[in-house]
Amino acid sequence: MYQSESAPWLWFRAWNTDGSAKTDLVFNTSGIDVKVARDNLANSSSLSLSAASSPTDWAAGKLSPIVGNLYRVGISTALISSYTGNIAVCGSYTGGVLEGIIDSVSAYDPTKNPLSPSVAGRQIAISATTGRVTAEAVELDSSSVTAVQSGLATAAAVQSVKDDTGTTLPAQSTAIYNRLGVPAGASMSADVAAVKADTASLLTRLTANAATAIQNLFHMITGSGSGSKFTTAALENGSAAGGASLEDIIAGVQSVSGGIIAAQDESALYITIGDTWTQDIESLGNLTNKTVSFAIKSKAKDADAAAVVMIVEGTGLTRLNGAATTAGWGSIEILDETAGDIRLRLESDATSLLTSGTYVDAVKALEDGDDRTLRQKGRTVVSAGVIADIT
Prior knowledge:
24% of the residues lie in helices and 28% in strands. By secondary structure, the protein is α+β, with helices and mostly antiparallel strands. The strands form 3 sheets. Strands 1, 2, 3, 4, 5, 6, 7 and 8 form an 8-stranded mixed β-sheet that branches. A 6-stranded mixed β-sheet has the order 9-17-16-11-12-13. The chain has a 3-stranded antiparallel β-sheet with strand order 10-15-14.
């Protein structure tokens, strides 16, 4: 978009925290908060939203559904009139986040600089043999011809050029000098050296900033280092909190939201940190006279004592992050003994102590001292709760 636009829009997608697309977002959706993020500037204040009555109904804060979970919202011209650089929507609603689609603001708008009326509509013919403009096909009014003549006269009056000793250079040298122009520095070679040095400095800064941005994004997602976890607050204030640029933040959102969607399959179990978790598992086989246990581990070969989570039927939660814990924080309920249907439960006290990541899990049944695996190397995904971090 351009600084001079009178009706600017920004586009974004809405994602629920479970990774599904939010297709029914409206201006008064519960908890909706939309802001505008720009490079090296604080986020705008929250937009005052209203519903657009038609695709052409523009005003700052007018929200329009486009297709699926794609939306657009009008923004104030004050946000772009004196700004150049990247710009995008950021924000959240109760149950999800907004993924802004990056646009860029340019100062020059070619549509605002048309040909003058005196030459508008003129046609120029191109020679099929030489590829040059044929002079007889060009039509100019008298003022345009006068301007051309004036320019030619000025060019013809170029003064001769002298070298460092005061000797006038030959006409050919003068023509070359005039074409090259006056050096910005002491000499042409000095100008070239300055460009080379600036380029090397730019490459160094780009490399360093890219590494820093990747590290900050990693800190935001994992909660390690000095960065914030990947929460709604971190998304809205990414530049200030994590030091990453707007493009890094949006790229992080796209990566995480895409990863969530790709990870949703029938075999995986999903635990949200800080939430009470229940999960039904069916058709494990006849469980009569068997004691069922469920384990989540970092690696399948880890000992039971090192389990991230270990729940035993009738006993409760026996291990949490490789240590003894409160038994009442977990349980296994037999729903159908013959069919082998069970229900797993972890209280929020336990899930709040877990670390985000992907783990392996297994269900076993113990009968007369024989330990039999019923679910081998399943996958459990533990992720941070976005909504729990909203204040």
